[in-house]
Amino acid sequence: MGKGILHYDVGEQIELFLLIKSATKGTASNGKPFLTLILQDQSGEIEAKLWDANDDDEKSYAAQNIVKILGDVQSYRGKSQLKIRQIRRTGPADGVKLDDFLETAPLSIEEMQSELTQYIFEMKNPNIQRITRHLMKKHHKEFMEYPAATKNHHEFVSGLAYHVVSMLKLAKAIAALYPSLDKDLLYAGIILHDMGKVMELSGPISTVYTLEGNLLGHITIMINEIGKAAEELGISGEEVLILQHLVLSHHGKAEWGSPKPPLIKEAEILHYIDNIDAKMNMLEGALERVKPGEFSERIFALDNRSFYKPVFHK
Amino acid sequence: MGKGILHYDVGEQIELFLLIKSATKGTASNGKPFLTLILQDQSGEIEAKLWDANDDDEKSYAAQNIVKILGDVQSYRGKSQLKIRQIRRTGPADGVKLDDFLETAPLSIEEMQSELTQYIFEMKNPNIQRITRHLMKKHHKEFMEYPAATKNHHEFVSGLAYHVVSMLKLAKAIAALYPSLDKDLLYAGIILHDMGKVMELSGPISTVYTLEGNLLGHITIMINEIGKAAEELGISGEEVLILQHLVLSHHGKAEWGSPKPPLIKEAEILHYIDNIDAKMNMLEGALERVKPGEFSERIFALDNRSFYKPVFHK
Amino acid sequence: MGKGILHYDVGEQIELFLLIKSATKGTASNGKPFLTLILQDQSGEIEAKLWDANDDDEKSYAAQNIVKILGDVQSYRGKSQLKIRQIRRTGPADGVKLDDFLETAPLSIEEMQSELTQYIFEMKNPNIQRITRHLMKKHHKEFMEYPAATKNHHEFVSGLAYHVVSMLKLAKAIAALYPSLDKDLLYAGIILHDMGKVMELSGPISTVYTLEGNLLGHITIMINEIGKAAEELGISGEEVLILQHLVLSHHGKAEWGSPKPPLIKEAEILHYIDNIDAKMNMLEGALERVKPGEFSERIFALDNRSFYKPVFHK
Amino acid sequence: MGKGILHYDVGEQIELFLLIKSATKGTASNGKPFLTLILQDQSGEIEAKLWDANDDDEKSYAAQNIVKILGDVQSYRGKSQLKIRQIRRTGPADGVKLDDFLETAPLSIEEMQSELTQYIFEMKNPNIQRITRHLMKKHHKEFMEYPAATKNHHEFVSGLAYHVVSMLKLAKAIAALYPSLDKDLLYAGIILHDMGKVMELSGPISTVYTLEGNLLGHITIMINEIGKAAEELGISGEEVLILQHLVLSHHGKAEWGSPKPPLIKEAEILHYIDNIDAKMNMLEGALERVKPGEFSERIFALDNRSFYKPVFHK
Amino acid sequence: MGKGILHYDVGEQIELFLLIKSATKGTASNGKPFLTLILQDQSGEIEAKLWDANDDDEKSYAAQNIVKILGDVQSYRGKSQLKIRQIRRTGPADGVKLDDFLETAPLSIEEMQSELTQYIFEMKNPNIQRITRHLMKKHHKEFMEYPAATKNHHEFVSGLAYHVVSMLKLAKAIAALYPSLDKDLLYAGIILHDMGKVMELSGPISTVYTLEGNLLGHITIMINEIGKAAEELGISGEEVLILQHLVLSHHGKAEWGSPKPPLIKEAEILHYIDNIDAKMNMLEGALERVKPGEFSERIFALDNRSFYKPVFHK
Amino acid sequence: MGKGILHYDVGEQIELFLLIKSATKGTASNGKPFLTLILQDQSGEIEAKLWDANDDDEKSYAAQNIVKILGDVQSYRGKSQLKIRQIRRTGPADGVKLDDFLETAPLSIEEMQSELTQYIFEMKNPNIQRITRHLMKKHHKEFMEYPAATKNHHEFVSGLAYHVVSMLKLAKAIAALYPSLDKDLLYAGIILHDMGKVMELSGPISTVYTLEGNLLGHITIMINEIGKAAEELGISGEEVLILQHLVLSHHGKAEWGSPKPPLIKEAEILHYIDNIDAKMNMLEGALERVKPGEFSERIFALDNRSFYKPVFHK
């Protein structure tokens, strides 16, 4: 599809198909309505304003439509903004489809599935293995497609599965260095820790929180799921309680959403692994957009810090 | 049984049957072992030291035994302490039994049961009523006997049921003043909010935390219970989610153990009612032991404050 | 007066008399001046922009004027906004008056006065009763008319008296359940706790802080008033000190404005009662504007939470 | 009186008259009572244990008695402790009197009085001057004798007046460098800021908090005093309000006891001056007891820090 | 140069030469570009919008250019704003130069230099004196010209030197009142404490942070400088370590940027002196712009407080 | 040497050579002196009391002496304590030497040295490599022998080098999973991050803080060292600044001692790696002392949590 929207510099003209991620109506200070469009392709997203938007525009340029745009990349308050010269909705003749515009995980679902199967296969404790396999099967489709969050990190199609697979690899490497770690617990804890997101979030695109997500949250939802799985499988050992504890405590502190802090060694390490993979994802995302010798945009979930790319990192 | 241990003043001599609540062995600074006994009757408890305790003493004066003591009430660091002159273990001939020494709720189990039944009966929403009744039935025995906590407030036999009944009365009065409140939700939320304690705590006496209590806590345990109850009863309406939210949020804030804050009006009010009844129980307990014109002992759960009893409160 | 401004839905056209609560001049991004008007009637308030406002407009449409407006209710950033088609200032011929546009307490001043008199009459301690009656008499007019705050809760004409009467009813109900509470102290504490607002705030409408309010605050002001009252009445018992303490500590913590936390049982309960009535007022206000199945606007003073109205709350 | 108790090193034998500052009874781990005595002379204080203390000892060696002691200075957990060999109560024949054992300000009451008079004399604003003079006169005796606190800083006889005089000198120096400061306000604020301590504290020796001190605190007490003074003097200008604000805000922040932070330039500076003089007093006290190259004892009110005395500070 | 821009009231017309401090391009809500200009002369600065700015305008009205403006002072959200009627860039014929528009310290560089020399001359400890003199010489030019900060306080040409000279005078006055203070340490600590700013900041005008400033900060930079100076001078006594500690700890707390809190008496006092001079500078700056009886703008670095100027401060 | 002291259960009798780690004199409540001895061998340490200790005992049983003890392992407040029956100082005839009693890293100095050499060898950036090699050479002896801390983690001989080697392995594994990481920076940052401890701490045994450690801390000390190394090697590229930043920021937050937070990706990851290795060391240390189904002692540096060892972890 040629160069993505994120790779155009300020001052360049673009002529691109873009997906409308969201469209919000506003009233300009001259009293006329306008639309704020967030436009995206697989390279990332950009904001654009459509001035003097009438009712037809509002319908034509709603979220999830694909448009063809002729315009200029400008700078506004230090961020890129698209100045629209021409815009039109696409039709069948344009030969474009939704999937071409969505950011997705760098691994295919098949590759990730194969990794996950292997890690579950390696588990030696049958109770832990059966519960994990049961829940993976139950939520399989959503688990492979949902993002890991609505923003901050892994906020793309299949982001949840990709985050989990990356954590599993990290866990394997760490467990090799500290052999006292129970790999079964680590692997199962990683696979289950965010699985509740398939009920907390609405789906892979235009993701919002469900009512259950708002009132209970993915941690509490998942504790229930583990409880039900154990009952259905007739498993009652301490493993059930420990797996629930791993999920319950993975945010690390009460004020971060875990009513119990980690009280098992593997729960503590799971919290660290989750943190490293999430932060690496944010850091790589922010730094790939800057040149050596520059500071990145501020990253909210990293205490709003702006990171520097050394000049010798050419 | 005559005057309780708490009603003796410093300087008085006592000759009483007392229950050993706990016995901890220590080594005195002269190298000899001693026992720290917490002795109780229904009026309250007092500490005593048994010096030069040998191995037989350690066995005879273990927790849950009833002893007969001759001694003097003394003052040590501003608290009463019992100086033991004579101590002996009781036998069948003494005609004393465990129940006579345990602090219990001021209402009988029958009275409280009758109140609870009435409140459940008054519920109009059948889903809410059925779930509440089901869980009350399932955990009935423990619910009527357990304390509400190991310390701080309602830490006596049947303290949990007494706390719940007091809260229900308070809820009824408040709902009469603010008619927009949903009484069904309030009553059900109150009955269920601490019910998980029957699994978090070990039992009505010498209460400690269970492993499940340590690793999950009564809130998470109870969310599971409501989920299971709904499944068994075939109820799937929004009421299930809302009841789980009421329990989940009743500590008010993440740092106090609720991963979601109250997001329903009745959840917010439930948190206030819980707070008022717990704090009134602490305040009344602390102030009944001081005379007008004096300050109470410091109350840890009230920010370690010491409360004053006005002189005109004779 | 027909349907209030708050009861029109987005898309509806209105033709209404409205009171200008505030008018702020701004410069549009095209360099021309405009007015931001907050318009109100007894149902609530709505924002409107008056574009291209000249100097005459600025004078005509100043705060406290009543206008007749023809316009459309629109949505702007999730809040309703009024698009003005025609606006004119009203004159005597329109037969409208200020009082018809002000939100006031749901009870009349006479009803509230009668309640207050009764509660003071019930006090048994003559010192407490005389001080309360003296101060009520001294500040009577303002006490019955002032709001309880400039925003957040009870921010309407007679809001202060209404808040106090609601708290008194709550106190009566609570004292019936916990008989150890001193009703005289509770009632007097409630009547006096916010009375300093009649000096902290400027008046019942377009309320702002006075210099005394800014530099001392209503709590400190009221401590002085109680001291003076006691001196004038020749009362010197511990009751004076305790009443001052009740007022001083009613915000509960130093960081919330009480240099001493509650150190009297009734002071602690007064703080809870104040909290419940204020929060119920906010919650009811926010939730009456949403439909079942929706979340309310964020409520700043409730940690910026958005509350959910269950679907079964039809 | 020879070398003071603080100037004896560990290992030295002493034979001294000492004042009993406090005496607390305890029970040793062998079951026998003992007394913990805090003994003082003008150089400072030291702890001593009197083992196997009988009832007569308890009476003889109560607080405020002067004793003659033969003993050894020992080290216990890094602090000096006195091992008592012989102790006896003194009588008229010993020719010792209370005043000889109390730590007092390094300036005489006459000197401090003269300084205070001069600063009040220099005030140009008659309202400020009259209120200050009136209150100084009203509380004169206590103001000249009370300590500034029960511990931490200026905790000696006439400590309050000494602290105020030191602050006045500091204010004069600072105002000379920043001429925009209003010296009248600064001087009056300094003289009045802690004057409420004469009602908050019980007296110059064995100082404890009064009930009024506990329930209201010296800041609130003093606001009342300024209000009364203004009324008695018939002064009603903004100066009254500003003086009350200076006192109210002098702790700087709500969580440190000032319900309003400084909102006047002189109030802000008053807070800094108070801080500097209090901290200098603590630092000098702690450092005069250590040798160059050593760290001082931890100073609780300075975040529990231990300060180093450089080797080149011989 | 006549009346400065800050001394014009809202409503007045101006015709002035002004320096463009910064110029930021924006897009108006009608889609057209505009420039936000911050214009300054020695009296202070004002914001102005230049609507419909074309590319030529963007070049002509860039930062550091001097312009002649005809316009009106207006009020926008409580702050003054300049409405531009005519604007033109100046040329040699206008006879204006950069220095005439920059705010500078109220003392000349020569006066400040002479003060600094005198304070260094008074030092008695040769190690302290030599290190201070060496570093002062090394960074002399920048030290005399840099501001003390990019905003908040002493943010003008030579602000750093002026801040240091004011602190030295304050130190002299305080040391006279507390003779135990080591004047050498105080003076050297004051001169060195912020000297690292000559490497942390980019220069005297349009000041931004350097990379070294962002990644290390002026405190760490200066520790290095003292270390190097000592090495070059062959000084190795405890004085080096103590001077480094004075600089390291001068922000007072870890969360304010000092990894070690003050652990030397003079370090503690240095922190207070720094604070007083910085805050006095902010307070005087904010209050000179308001009339008696008014509140100042909010001062961010003083907890966002707004300060009141008493009516009797005419 | 047979079974270590830590492997004896309560109730067992021991006859062992032990090293006195520390000896503190106290006064028993009967007035007689005693010694609190911390005794250690390579398995760990235990506390013992030596009652009625005379002056000779104090000299014989000072720290760093090896003693032979006959005694019983007892339990005191949940911790093991040694009851001494016989104790005697050892002499040459006993054939025991200091090294046999010290806990040391599980890898030999040679093994660790070889690992370190290899990691430095792998660095590709010559500036980074040269600085690292230079500093490693300069502080080689101490770096290989010092502990990583006085308590909490890696508090044993060669603990610093062992901690660094473990972190390097972890870094290698993580960098393999996230190839965007600069391995040179990570490896150099890890080797240098705590090297300042060789000046902050006093040595490998009986470790305390040096004056430089107290007043500057290991981070600030090391920044200086890197600066000096670069100067000596004539290196001036951005690498010097970045290496200083890595060391400066490795505690992650200002309140944890890093005046600048990580602003380079590798600095952020270095902080996580440091954390994981330190916490794993604490967790393994605490859990190896408990049996499956038990909770560990509380670990202060892990928020005082007590960790559970699952029953299925046999």
TrEMBL record, chains A, B, C, D, E, F:
Keyword terms: Exonuclease, Hydrolase, Nuclease
Matches recorded under InterPro entries: 3'-5'_exoribonuclease_YhaM, HD/PDEase_dom, HD_domain, NA-bd_OB-fold, NA-bd_OB_tRNA, YhaM_exoribonuc/phosphodiest
Family matches, as PROSITE patterns: HD (PS51831)
Task: Give the EC class as a word.
Answer: hydrolase
Asked whether the keyword Nucleotidyltransferase is assigned, the reply is: no
The organism's superkingdom is given as Bacteria
User: Is Nucleotidyltransferase among this UniProt entry's keywords?
Assistant: no
The Swiss-Prot or TrEMBL record annotates one GO molecular function as: nucleic acid binding
CDD domains (alphabetical): HDc (cd00077), YhaM_OBF_like (cd04492)
Q: Which SUPFAM superfamilies match?
A: HD-domain/PDEase-like (SSF109604), Nucleic acid-binding proteins (SSF50249)
Extract the signal peptide range: none
- Pfam hit, one: HD
Q: EC number(s) per UniProt?
A: 3.1.-.-
One GO term under biological process is: rRNA 3'-end processing
Could you tell me which residue ranges the HD domain spans? 163-279
Describe its function. Answer: Shows a 3'-5' exoribonuclease activity.
Q: Which family does it belong to?
A: Belongs to the YhaM family.
UniProt protein name: 3'-5' exoribonuclease YhaM
